[in-house]
Amino acid sequence: MIRDLDERGEEGEIEADLCIIGAGAAGITLARALKDSGLEIALLEAGGLEIEADSQEVYEGDIVGLDYYPIDTTRLRYFGGSTNHWSGRCMKLDPIDFEKRDWIPNSGWPIERDALLPYYEPAQEIVELEHRLEYDQFWEEFGIDPPGFDPEKLVKNVDQRSPPTRFGEVYREELEAAERCTVWLHANVLDIETDDEASHVQSVTVRSFKGKEARVKAKGFVLACGAMENARLLLANRKTEPHGFGNRHDVVGRYFSDHAHMLIGDIVTAEPVTLLDAARRQFQGGSEFLPRFALPDALQEKFRVTNSACWLVNELEASAGMTAAADLIERMRGMEGRPPLTDSAWRVMVNLDDVAVAAWQRFVQGRKTVQEVNYVGLFGCTDPVPNPDSRVILDDEDVDVFGMPRAVLDWRLTELDHISLRKLGEVIGAELARTGLGRLKLHDWFMEEPSPDWMARFHESPEAERFSYLDWISNHNIGTTRMADDPKQGVVDGDGKMHHVDNFWIAGSSVFPTSGSAQPTLTIVALALRLADHLKATLRA
Amino acid sequence: MNRRHLIKLTALSLAGLVAPAAGPARQRADALFKELFGDPGFAAHVGQASLADDETSGSRGRELVAEIASLRPPAGMQRLQERIDADLEALDLVVVDGWVMARAEADLCAAVHLDRNLA
Q1: Nearest-CA residue of chain A relative to B94?
Q2: Alpha carbons A115 and A111: distance in angstroms, whole number
Q3: Alpha-carbon gap, residue A342 to B9, rounded angstroms
Q4: Given an 8 Å threshold on Cβ–Cβ distance, is B26 in contact with A436?
Q5: Cα–Cα–Cα angle for A70, A76, A78, nearest 5°?
Q6: A252-304, pLDDT tens digit by residue?
């Protein structure tokens, strides 16, 4: 069922077997996976069912490191969390992303990819990827000749777009009907109460914006509020641990990362349509697929670089025939401001050949129609190097409506992030030349001396202005409560359980030690399913 | 070989990168590259940047031009294409002014720059 803390009539504590803090992708997935397990679940959502200014305002905070989007706009604080505005792009992590690589400081997960693999399939169902493809099926499925890149130089991957699934909308009815799961709206967690040794969580205190307060007691707790808010809640709880709950080794808030991604070069090609046809977004069965390129593991090791990725971007202009056809359709639908019907019909007639080609591609081959191409560029995406100096901290002078210090983001990149993307760009440039598909000119700002401040140079570059419509970060908040076997290196263990605490787990991308260049949501959901299995066994024992 | 002849030959070498054995895609893209680097001014500009990074680039370029010139035209062009392909295959690359090039290409541009200055 779904209840609002403000409308709670009864007094006393809320009791549950499991208290899940945060109703985003991870929290909702956990609740759904456990709702029929026999466990009594309380799912706490700080906001309401729709966006509310009071709730969103809690996310305000400063940025002191590299430029970043305002942190109260990159996340959403209501039922469904940031899935309410995610773009839906999904990709599994690669095996190498889990490995300890001696050339990448602090790399390596405490679990192998195989431990996660069984959960990716149901995770794909949860994010509604109806038409699922593995990488090597993509080209055949769409009848595309792949670019003839040497597989020893470049590997071809593909990411796929979910509808995107708005977890709060899609799974609301199911949770409303759940008998042993109660979603509490407007339940802002303020205090985490523990025993004297901070080794066992007894309860959490929640308060609504109208001042209604309650204590939630449970056998187990899962924190699932996203990387910035997880860190803020832990750092702000200093009753039993002076530097924040779970922070005895000063790891909470550290290793924050995001996928910086930006245009890094222009591709000069005599046949942009041929190039794009082989390496552009395609659509099938309601799904969108984007091919991308990365260095194979052996080259990553040889060059001592990360698993960054690149894909093509383009600017298109509709051909004369297709423009006329679009005008004609819109005019027939009664849209204002279109050329006269006869004019559009005439232009379609005289350009019938490109209309026919486009129609064939769209309706028979199921491919997106390639139009006139004005520009083709290479877009790069980092596999962020784990960096302890990139972090979320608190501003004790600036508090939210509940008196909790606001988050301050100090996002940083490293020289290796720059070097890695550059090496990938060079190999793509060589393969474009070798296969005759084109020539790559990397941008001037990108070719400057490798530096941790390389993103700042991008912001000052003419390309940042010219392509200002392209995002330069992904809003993938990662790290801050990372997994590691060693408590000095991570906040949680391989099961997501906080070190030194017997009944407190963390879910979401805040536990990722590294993130490859894959979008995190699919892995967030897969990890949540894995945690659900672990909790079933642990809490029912 | 006089300098003027050398410049002309180098520019033509760059302009003639279309190998007879290459397939259609290769011919299209290289035709575009030919347009860019077939202009000795542009090749010299790239060559200047190449020399700033590696001062031995010019002498290697001259040696390559001499080698090409010693062969009959089709064989010379084929030899050049092989050198470029080998560099691309081995990822023996030079990034000059942002252009990702085979080392042989950068060397040729450096030779163009040197010889234009001498001329």
Answers
A1: A426
A2: 7
A3: 57
A4: yes
A5: 150
A6: 999 999 999 999 999 988 778 778 877 777 777 667 788 899 999 999 999 99
CA A272 distance to own-chain centroid? 30
Distance from CA of A68 to the nearest CA of B (A): 27
CB A154 within 8 A of CB A162: no
CB A245 within 8 Å of CB A190: no
B107 touching chain A per CB within 8 A: no
Mutant choice from B18, B45, B81, B100 vs A, greatest count of A C-beta within 10 A = B100
How many Å apart are CA A359 and CA A275, to the nearest integer? 20
Closest approach of chain A CAs to the CA of B82, in angstroms? 11
The angle formed by the CA atoms of residues A517, A521 and A524, to the nearest 5 degrees, is 105
pLDDT at A423: 98
This prediction's pTM: 0.88
Which chain A residues touch B82 with a CB distance below 8 Å?
A: none
**Structure-token pair, residue A353:** 């050949």
What is the distance between the terminal CA atoms of chain B, rounded to a whole angstrom? 13
Pair of tokens at residue A436: 């005759």
Calculate Rg over the CA atoms of chain A: 25
Both tokens assigned to A208: 């609504």
Contacts A427 to B, Cβ<8 Å: 91
Cα–Cα distances in Å, from A278 out to A112, A147, A203, A271, A274? Answer: 33, 6, 55, 11, 6
